[in-house]
Design brief:
Helix content: 55-70%
Order of helices and strands: HHHHH
Radius of gyration: 44 Å
Distance between the termini: 117 Å
């Protein structure tokens, strides 16, 4: 059977007060000094300093990230190219495909068989 917590606390408090009355002043002073030293060590421990330093650092990081996310899309959206490139120039530069029939020289399509033969026999040397 377990004793009542209130009775247990009252009994512990009574024993503590009785023991503290019987202490001599030298021992009592040493205990108070040890208590103050332990409290000072707990106040300056790295475990207590970490939350104090991490909170401002985290807030600054969130603020910097939010600023970059807001600023970058606006910065790129306002800038337009100074001169537009022709569509044919971008198509030629971006792909290895032959040019469209509308924009290419019509003479290129007259001898398609020759160009096919030339691509198949690219090792043929021309004499001059």
């Amino acid at each position: 059977m377990t004793p009542d917590p209130d009775k247990l606390a009252q009994r512990a408090r009574a024993l503590y007060l009785d023991a503290s009355r019987q202490l001599d002043p030298v021992t009592s002073g040493r205990l108070r000094a040890a208590r103050r030293q332990a409290l000072d060590a707990a106040r300056t421990s790295p475990a207590r300093l970490a939350p104090r330093l991490l909170l401002p650092a985290g807030a600054f990081a969130v603020l910097a990230l939010a600023t970059l996310m807001i600023w970058q899309p606006l910065h790129h959206a306002d800038q337009a190219p100074s001169r537009p490139m022709p569509a044919a120039a971008t198509a030629d530069a971006d792909s290895d495909l032959p040019p469209d029939a509308d924009s290419a020289d019509p003479q290129l399509y007259q001898n398609l068989d020759f160009y096919g033969w030339l691509a198949a026999n690219d090792r043929v040397k021309v004499r001059r």
